Known about the structure:
mainly beta, 22-stranded antiparallel barrel
Amino acid sequence: MKQVPAAFGVFLLAAAVSASVQAQQNTPLPQDAASEQERAKDAVDLDQVIVTGVRSAKSVDKIPGAVSLVTKEEIAHTLLMTDDATAVLARTVPGYAEASQAMSNSGETLRGRVALRLFDGVPQGSPLRDGSRNATFTDMGIVGRVEVINGPSASEGIGASGGIINYISAVPTKEGNEFRLLTRYSTQFKDDSAGWKVGMNFARKQDNYDMIVGVSRIDRGMGYDANGLRLGMNTSGSVSDSEARNLFVKGGINFGEDLEKRLQVSYSDFKIEGNGNYVQVDGCRYEPGWCENPSPNTSERGHLFGTKAEFNDFTQVNVIYTDADFFGGTLSLNAYWADQAMRYPAENGSDRQDPLIPPNGPDGLIWDQSEINSDKVGFRPSWTRGELFGVEGLELRTGVDWVRDKADQRLALTNRLWVPPMEYESIAPYMQLSYDIGPVTLSGGFRREDGEMKVGDYTTTWFRDRRFVQGGKLSYQENLVNFGAIWRITDQWSVFGAYGEGFGLPNVGIPLRNISCPNDPDDTKPDGCPGDPPATVDSTFQELKAVVVDNREIGVNWRGQRTSFSASHYDSRSKLGSSYVIDPITEDYTLFRAPTRIKGFEFSGDWNINDAWKLSGVYSRIRGKTSFWTQDPEGRWDAGPLNKPIGALDVNPDKIALSVRWKFSEAGDATLGSTTLLSRDLSGSDVRPYDNREFSYEEHTTGYTLFDLGMNYRVENVGRFSLGIENLTNKQYILTWSQVPGWRNYWAGRGRMYSFTYEYTF
């Protein structure tokens, strides 16, 4: 992975995928494609890398900012150890947090903020109700590369306040047909730990058309920690004891007098579902007098009565038309539709109870499962023109984005509304200019976000006092700007500076479902407190305001013949940020809206010692501050100063990732990697002048280092054989985000796991 200059505030859309595909199809293949692919594994020619995130083909060393390019080879190496969709990001992207090893990606932030995840430019998940499941939406075996635009970006408008992670599907590269068969067997050598995968990709490239088809099925067994204890079934969804199947089809045709036009259609259907063969057994973290012998959550065989399997079910259709000769520029028209559903494991917490509903569990309580459903449609035309007004080096990108997103959340077993149906519709015109002046590239742009959220009338649950809430409409308008410059001092050195703004919605479903009666003993709750003023969606506007983030960044890049490195420093600020805190009553996550500031430093480097040996490393340090109290709705006090440290639920500790690759022959290689999260101690305190209330916060997390090993050996006319070992030293550890107190939140990480892979391409 190389961190290279990248688009900061330059707009990423699905049309970028088409531009990348067209660039690859219109570029002559080398005579020896196989040797060229082998060469690409050893080095990436940054001048030739096309960043699809800028909507049109562009050399990345002409774009100010920072992007992390995760290559196909890095994805393949990670898949030797694990099929976790985000593990490759945790290993290779400096600012990406620790992987959760679960169906949920809770706590997996990018530079301390929530990133917008895309698949071929199509948003995954809903900004209206983020269920932290939007990182598991396809089989990584169909992904050709991942582009991570670090920091806030106006490129996608809503949802990109923390950056963009775009998973780009593979494209055919050879003329004719190509089949790729992959089988994998994984085990921790326990009787129920075995898992397997079978996948087949078919690619065809012929004359002016191409297509790729991918199918796969993954069956995962139970996971075990290094002490031999079964891992707990994650309360937001576990990948242990689950099955996943994936179908992906993409086809395109080039036409026109010079094949300058292209129509491309893709279809993706992915579902991961739990088998329901195990139930959670809660552990306990150390607490004097309560838990003297701490033990992480574990699992035992069984099935909760009447419950259903948790799942992620994602389907999307993506249509892209491009014309490279449209009024002297390139026209891109992109339309998409996506349907996404997520079901969560059963819980019997106090927020699930209702005295009017008969208990359905053996413990005399109501067990219920929440389901989030969302669907979206979008249309995004854009136009790119180089040499604008006949000026060499001056380029314009302009367009407009329209999207309509709907989402709701229900308690499935009792058929109760939990989060009301919400609809967000926005239209966002934008314009971006870049100007190459010799070794200097200047860029700047503007985007107008104009959206409206609609919520109908609804009634909250019994736990929230059955309060009737009058629906309404909330408007969101924001002008977003970005500008930056990069100076290529020599062929080896470049420096850049950038400023960018990003826009997103908070997880609006949480404050809407939490509306309840005031804490007044004279109220008649849970009858909706009819004596109090009516509750309206508008009354929660302070919590529902948009998250607008501005980011300042400077960086330096150096690239030699065998060595390269990048370093950058960023300062990300929001006047009304969004972070998670633990509700002391429900022990569940709730939103906290207050000013935030996150600063960090990143470094990445590669050293190709010789043709056989290569060293790589990344380092990330992030620190964040917010307020102990937010602005009072009645105006009695303002938000507090930035004296509260932001903890592990949002900002991960310092990370060091290292790897060494040894190519011991033309047919074989081995890679040893390590990922270290350092220990961290956070503390802060403050006193609110209005009422002299004292606040304090402490958080202590223990770091750890994990090693992994991957080995490949190719036998001519037979195929490639691989061995992957995750957690090579069988280290026992508690996941960092799980070291923070919370409801049933005490999970260990996986112990040593072996994976044997066979791949045959013909």
